[in-house]
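STRUCTURE:
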């Protein structure tokens, strides 16, 4: 893990296209501004992990689920 020290209004650049800026610091809370291309997904880690979990669960559904749902009518 790379650890950087930044002050308010200072930034870091990632891969020439993503800029993270420290907007404010209040106690143990930091507000970050993120400039990134529209095709880059940005999520808080807990949301990202939930998406990964749901995707994994969805991929484990039975392959005949569509047939099952069609026959339920």
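SEQUENCE:
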């Amino acid at each position: 893990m790379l650890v950087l020290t930044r002050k308010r209004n200072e930034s870091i650049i990632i891969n020439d296209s993503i800029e993270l800026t420290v907007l404010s610091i209040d106690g143990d809370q930091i507000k970050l501004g993120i400039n990134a291309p529209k095709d880059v997904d940005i999520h808080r880690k807990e949301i990202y992990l939930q998406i990964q979990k749901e995707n994994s669960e969805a991929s484990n559904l039975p392959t005949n689920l569509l047939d099952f749902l069609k026959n339920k009518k």
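REMARK: The beta strands are 11-14, 18-26, 29-35.
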